[in-house]
Design goal:
- Pfam families: Xan_ur_permease.
- InterPro entries: Azg-like, NCS2.
- One of its GO terms (molecular function) is purine nucleobase transmembrane transporter activity.
- It is found in: Membrane.
- Its main location: membrane.
- A two-stranded antiparallel sheet has the order 1-4.
- The chain has one domain.
- The chain starts with a helix and ends with a helix.
- The protein contains 14 helices and four strands.
- Strand 2 and strand 3 form a beta hairpin.
- About 55% of the residues lie in helices and about 5% in strands.
- By secondary structure, the chain is mainly alpha-helical.
Length: about 375
């Protein structure tokens, strides 16, 4: 799950957060150095926010529900929040602050549904085969994100009109920003091959030999290779943006205050299309009901604690309420909705059966808050 700290922050920061840009075409805001610098501050704040949410939510879930299940800002919902609701640089249908308000309200509705038994009732309406299959679907969706440019190695990109997806892998400067497709140089980006061989194949070989922490080793190897400067795969290129990243990285241990994302909810709804706001709210709610519920069901079934007669599990109301509460808490820190993580299965497969596994995972997230320069890089 460690990847969520960097990936969630990178995705959500593409909205621009609370940064302001007066240009009519918001996509051109990235040509303004001050705006780019502000987005980098938002990203660093979101690194802290993501680690804090994951840590607090997972520890609480382990104590209250006594299940080896971790909670963090969810993949999929963060992509929907970024690209469909707020939009790149705030070009979407709902402003960043108002979208956070929608998430806060969603969490409250979720708590009410859980306390009244409505969520459990909705769970029982969903066939168990569909709930189990949802886990597979989420895994495939995570694969697509990992192969994309937005938060992955850039092996694939949108196919514009002809096909939904097409081969990518070219350097960023060769991408046509109108179509999002590579004009030339497909599969020639050095960072792509580092991701494939070091992040993918090395991890796969280690997993074949049943070596623990195979995925973490693969991700760490890719990160370490990207740290040296003056290489074709560096994360710190020789420009203003790269220099700023490197100065932050050199601090190693630091407390990054969430000055641009903390408590940014907007209750005025000024200039907001009410129908679009309601649409976003209920889309978040619907996706969360299906996503979080199906994933949690898959995990508890993997643990072997599901009652076959009632199709329920112990302390389910407390589990659902905890999940819902941290949706609202996460919005106060500037993040998209939190959810149960499918990656919890890795801990269960290693023998985790109680909340102790979740508590240890949460403590690791809390510790990572103070290593924001590393996780942001």
């Amino acid at each position: 799950m460690a990847y969520i700290i960097a990936v969630n922050a990178s995705l959500l920061s593409q909205t621009g957060g609370t940064c302001e840009c007066a240009l009519e075409n918001k996509l051109n805001c990235d040509t303004i150095p001050k705006y780019v610098s502000c987005k980098e501050e938002v990203r660093r704040d979101l690194v802290t926010a993501t680690a804090a949410i994951a840590g607090m939510a997972t520890i609480t879930f382990g104590i209250v529900a006594n299940l080896p299940v971790a909670i963090a800002p969810g993949m999929g919902l963060n992509a929907y929040f970024t690209f469909q609701v707020v939009g790149a640089n705030g070009s979407g249908i709902v402003p960043y602050r108002t979208a956070l308000t929608a998430i806060f309200m969603e969490g409250i509705i979720f708590i009410i549904l859980a306390l009244t038994g409505m969520r459990q009732w909705l769970v029982k309406l969903i066939p168990s085969t569909l709930k189990t299959a949802t886990g597979v679907g989420i895994g495939l969706f995570l694969t697509e994100i990992g192969l994309s440019y937005s938060a992955g190695i850039g092996a694939i990109t949108g196919g514009w009109i002809s096909t939904p997806l097409t081969l990518g892998g070219c350097p960023m400067e060769l991408i046509n920003y109108k179509t999002g497709m590579c004009e030339s140089g497909k599969m020639s980006n050095p960072t792509l091959w580092v991701g494939i061989f070091c992040g993918g194949m090395v991890a796969a070989v280690l997993m074949a030999f049943r070596i623990n922490y195979s995925l973490i080793i693969g991700m760490s190897l890719v990160s370490i290779l990207s740290w040296p400067r003056n290489t074709s795969i560096t994360y710190f290129p020789d420009n203003d943006d790269g220099n700023s990243r490197f100065e932050f990285f050199k601090q190693v241990v630091v407390w990054q205050p969430m000055t641009r994302t903390l408590n940014q909810l907007d209750w005025t709804f000024e200039g907001v299309n009410t129908s679009q706001f309601i649409l976003a709210l209920f889309t978040f709610l619907y996706v969360d009901i299906i996503d979080a519920t199906a994933t949690l069901y898959s995990m508890v079934r993997f643990c072997g604690v599901v009652d076959e007669k009632t199709d329920d599990f112990p302390r389910s109301t407390l589990a659902y309420c905890t999940d819902a509460a941290f949706i609202s808490i996460g919005s106060l820190l500037g993040s998209s909705p939190s959810t149960v993580f499918m990656e919890s299965s890795s801990g269960i497969s290693e023998g985790g059966r109680t909340g102790l596994a979740a508590i240890v995972t949460g403590l690791c997230f809390i510790i990572s808050i103070f290593f924001a320069p590393i996780f942001a890089s």
